[in-house]
Amino acid sequence: MLFLASSSYAGLPNPFSLFSDKEDEKSLEPIITNSPEKEAKASALLEKGMGKYNRGHARSAQRIFKKITKKYPDTKAAGEALYMRGQLFMERERWVKAFGLLQQLVEEYPRHTDFNEVLAAQFQCATALMEGARGRIFWILPAFKQLPEAIIQFEQITANAPYGQYAPLALMNIALLAQEEKDSQIAIDALDRLINYYPQSTLAPDAYSTLAGIYASLVGSEEYDQGSTRRAISYYEDFLVLFPESENVGQVEANLRSMENLLAGSRLSLGDFYYLYRTNNTAALVFYNEAITIAPESEAAILAQKRIDDINAGVRPATGGRLLKRLLFVN
After folding, report:
1. 216 near 255, Cβ under 8 Å?
2. Any domain includes 47
3. Using CA of residue 205, residue 206, residue 209, residue 210, what is the dihedral sign?
4. Full residue range of the structural domain in which residue 87 is found
């Protein structure tokens, strides 16, 4: 189970509503005004830091870049220095720290960086965590995997660029990570957003089939509530309608039949309950007919038709020892 509650992402707004238009987006950016003298000093420090970095003196370069962001935070050079700080932490595989600095860059210096480059770096950080990169205890001993942190980072990437190419992939990665962490609700939420907000994405077919598979995995047996079975059937059917040319059609059709058979079995069980134990033929007929409608060629449908024939013929349901014999030998 994720350390992050499943409800953390429930009810998130459509990402395309985050900005009504480009002017609204720009209005969120800080207006940086500074004296030429400060800009010159910050630029000189940046040049010095880059020199250190290019000569392989990473720690010295890091100190200089940090000085720029602290002493001249409202200069153009500060944005570039912050980006370099993130790059240096990435080189040391300190992915969480690097992502945090890059996020600060997105929020505070949107006009002074290549946004796509920053987003790509953030995606690299999240992917490293997804692939099993571990934190360090005292910067030496390997700690636990950071899959929950990867989910948080992918969510942030989606929020940063809802129009971007990384958003659908980030949502798919969230679903995969959540499945690994045994949190079906987060996986379902991410995939649901993917198919609703990015229906033209190349990942949409996988999202539909994965969603159906998750719901199918939540089904205990035909005796349990079949809400998850119905959802699985719905997503499998949507897949076949929307992606008839997919190479996975055969597998999806097989999965759909399996879910339909399971649901038909549940209707048969309910019909048997009313016919054999409650002598309520009217209710029993409703469920038997549902079983036949759901999966006409299934074993459950065949048995349901036998029950219907018995009811129409006036056969009384067996009780006691006769019921046991019926269940053992007639079915």
Report:
1. yes
2. yes
3. negative
4. 40-92
Q: Which residues contact 258 (CB under 8 A, 6 or more apart)?
A: 216
Give pTM, 2 decimals: 0.79
60 located within any domain: yes
Taken as a whole, the chain contains a residue count of 331
Tell me, yes or no, whether 173 lies in a domain.
no
Helix axes 249-272, 299-312, angle to 10 degrees: 30
Find, among 211, 203, 208, the residue nearest to 187 by Cα: 211
**Integer angstrom CA distances of residue 52 from 40, 59, 60, 65:** 19, 9, 7, 10
Distance separating alpha carbons of residues 209 and 200, to the nearest angstrom: 15
Residue 319 lies in a domain: no
Q: How many domains does the chain have?
A: 1
Exposure string for 271-284, b = 16+ CB within 10 A, e = fewer: bbebbbeeeebeeb
Q: Give the CATH number, domain containing residue 64.
A: 1.25.40.10
CA–CA distance, 69 with 77 (Å, rounded to integer): 8
C-alpha to C-alpha distance for 190 and 9, rounded to whole angstroms: 8
| CA distance linking residue 93 with residue 136, whole number of Å | 10
Q: What is the pLDDT along the chain (331 residues), one digit of tens a residue?
A: 333 333 344 444 455 444 444 444 444 444 445 688 999 999 999 999 999 999 999 999 999 999 999 999 989 999 999 999 999 999 999 999 999 999 999 999 887 668 999 999 999 999 999 998 755 544 444 445 689 999 999 999 999 999 899 999 999 999 999 999 999 999 999 999 999 999 999 999 999 999 999 999 988 655 555 789 999 999 999 999 999 999 999 999 999 999 999 999 999 999 999 998 888 999 999 999 999 999 999 999 999 999 999 999 998 876 554 455 555 555 4
* Token pair of 50 as six digits: 């880059």
CA angle (257, 260, 262) in 5-degree steps: 110
